[in-house]
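Lab notebook: predicted structure, single chain.

Context: the supervisor wants predicted structures on file for every construct in the current expression panel, including those that have not yet been purified. This is the next one on the list. No modifications to the sequence; it matches the entry in the shared construct table.
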Amino acid sequence: MDQFLQAAIEEAHKGLAEGGIPIGSVIVHQGKILGRGHNRRVQQGSVVLHGEMDAFENAGRQPASVYRECTLYTTLSPCPMCTGAILLYGIPKVIIGENQTFMGEEELLKLRGVEVTVVNDAACVQMMTDFIRDRPELWNEDIGE
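Prediction complete. Output recorded below exactly as produced.
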């Protein structure tokens, strides 16, 4: 498995261990992790800290030229909010762990020229399948149902 997808999965496991939603993300620049994060809506009482948003927050302020050279890895297909951040900062490539349990805005990313790769990693699928089964109320809150 790709080391960066593995790092995103580790972030997702951290979120789950903290009582949150198991979605993780890392932003990679020139072979190094610039920012890592996991969904912390529950832990922080936040309305915006999805895994990707947390990774952006932890990457800190970066010049646009840096973001234009990054790859974002996420365990789950990005929602509209996270897709907007990816487009806003000009991330050219997104690697998605899985989109079977939730299909985000992949088509919008592709329409805007982002290279999107879906791995459909079995561990990512199982992690979300188990979470949605065990915590449907929390999952529905997170995706706005």
